[in-house]
């Protein structure tokens, strides 16, 4: 029997229009960072987020790094960060020689727990170190409790960087994710709903912040006829070719977000009779998730202790790519000495969670095969 084609977790999906913008850049010899495509892509991002200003960059990680610099984070400072996230949310804190302070998740959204956020702020202030910034993540496209987080942050006068790397197209109370804090960040990595192959964006309603991000991303070259530098800069620019890909993606933005959400509702319906499986769902009508990845929890008490990792390996043998949930930052060896305000929630989510194939190019037949295979593995211990 021929081996089945690999069903990817989340693969790039081209609209077919990317080459129009790429070829135009080649005709005009705009094979360099920044350029007309970068400017047009930034306008596209303003349109879908409603934000005032956008600086397109080489990655979402670069955007977080520049955000910390612009907010004045320096050596010895403390920055609060969601623990249940990808390491790119926390790594830039260490770039600045600052200390990450990790905060636990709450069960409804899997994002930063507001009560524990406030507890951490009070405790750090009591210890003589008021946090310099808060990095709040919208995990797997699900908006955090942004109203509560922003109320706490504003009350203690701590600026928020909203890490919406996975949440383009998601909204809270009708407002686009990435636009709640002083600064928001987006990612266009190859596995995201909208991709530029590699890239990110720094977004804000503060024009000066975005101007500063652009300046720092272009090696902080001062306005002189020669190369003059009074600050340390970075090569964090977005390629004009990458932006061309992004423009082709933005031409089908609504379709891409709709398909990610469709994947979620397909799996939810297909597996609705499996009482051992629960989904990360929108808690109420204020939350609108792009469902970048459809994520599930598998109750080991209802599967005779069949762990998600064993299920993942069985699915892998069927050429179905799945992935564990993010391992919390406070459990990562590199961050083991960092303060963490946790209660075991994110650790449990990590231990029993799984991400299902969620590409926008996945077919109905492929999704059904994933659902059927998952059912058989859990119910019958097949494969």
Quick structural overview:
The chain has 383 residues and is of the alpha/beta class. It has helices at 18-27, 36-49, 60-70, 91-95, 114-126, 146-155, 207-217, 240-250, 253-270, 308-317, 345-352, 364-380, and strands spanning 53-57, 78-82, 99-103, 133-137, 160-163, 171-172, 175-176, 183-187, 200-204, 277-279, 287-288, 294-298, 340-341, 353-356. The chain folds into two domains: 18-250, Aspartate Aminotransferase, domain 2 (3-Layer(aba) Sandwich); 253-380, Aspartate Aminotransferase, domain 1 (Alpha-Beta Complex).
Structural domains: how many: 2
Task: Please give the radius of gyration in angstroms.
Answer: 21 Å
Number of strands: 14
Mean pLDDT: 96
CATH architecture of the largest domain: 3-Layer(aba) Sandwich
- Identify low-pLDDT runs: none
Gross morphology is globular
Distance between the termini: 15 Å
What structural class do helix, strand and pairing data support?
A: alpha/beta
CATH class of the largest domain: Alpha Beta
Biggest sheet, strands in spatial order?
Answer: 1-9-8-5-4-2-3-13
String of helices and strands: HHEHEHEHEHEEEEEHHHEEEHEHEH
- Give the name of the CATH superfamily of the largest domain: Type I PLP-dependent aspartate aminotransferase-like (Major domain)
Helicity range of the residues?
25-40%
Q: Within the CATH hierarchy, at the fold level, what is the topology of the largest domain?
A: Aspartate Aminotransferase, domain 2
Counted by DSSP, the helix tally is 12
Proportion of beta-strand residues? 5-15%
């Amino acid at each position: 029997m021929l081996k089945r084609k690999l069903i990817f977790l989340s693969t790039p999906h081209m609209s077919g229009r990317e080459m129009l913008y790429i070829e135009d850049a080649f005709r005009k010899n705009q094979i360099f960072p920044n350029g007309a495509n970068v400017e047009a892509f930034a306008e596209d991002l303003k349109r879908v987020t409603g934000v005032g200003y956008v600086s397109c960059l080489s990655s979402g990680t670069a955007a977080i790094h520049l955000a910390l610099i612009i907010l004045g984070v320096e050596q010895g400072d403390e920055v609060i960060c969601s623990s249940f996230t990808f390491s790119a949310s926390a790594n830039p804190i260490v770039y600045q020689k600052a200390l990450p302070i990790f905060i636990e998740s709450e069960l409804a959204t899997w994002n930063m727990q507001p009560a524990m956020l406030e507890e951490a702020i009070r405790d750090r202030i009591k210890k003589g170190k008021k946090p310099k910034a808060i990095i709040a993540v919208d995990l797997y496209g699900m908006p955090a409790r942004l109203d509560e987080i922003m109320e706490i942050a504003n009350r203690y006068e701590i600026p928020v960087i909203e890490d919406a790397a996975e949440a383009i197209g998601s909204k809270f109370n009708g407002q686009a994710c990435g636009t709640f804090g002083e600064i928001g960040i987006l990612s266009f990595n190859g596995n995201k709903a909208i991709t530029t192959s590699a890239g990110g964006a720094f977004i804000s309603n503060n024009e000066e912040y975005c101007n500063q991000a652009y300046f720092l991303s272009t090696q902080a070259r001062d306005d002189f006829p020669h190369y003059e530098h009074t600050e340390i800069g970075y090569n964090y620019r977005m390629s004009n070719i990458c932006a061309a890909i992004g423009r082709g993606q933005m031409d089908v933005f609504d379709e891409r977000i709709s398909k990610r959400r469709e994947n979620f509702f397909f799996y939810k319906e297909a597996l609705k009779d499996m009482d051992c499986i629960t989904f990360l769902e929108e808690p109420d009508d204020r939350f609108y998730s792009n469902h970048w990845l459809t994520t599930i929890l598998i109750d080991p008490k209802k599967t005779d202790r069949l762990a998600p990792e064993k299920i993942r390996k069985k699915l892998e043998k069927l050429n179905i790519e799945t992935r564990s949930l993010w391992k919390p930052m406070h459990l990562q060896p590199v961050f083991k000495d960092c303060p963490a305000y946790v209660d075991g929630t994110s650790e449990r989510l990590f231990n029993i969670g799984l991400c299902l194939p969620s590409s926008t190019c996945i077919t109905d037949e492929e999704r059904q095969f994933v659902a059927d295979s998952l059912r058989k593995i859990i119910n019958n211990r097949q494969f």
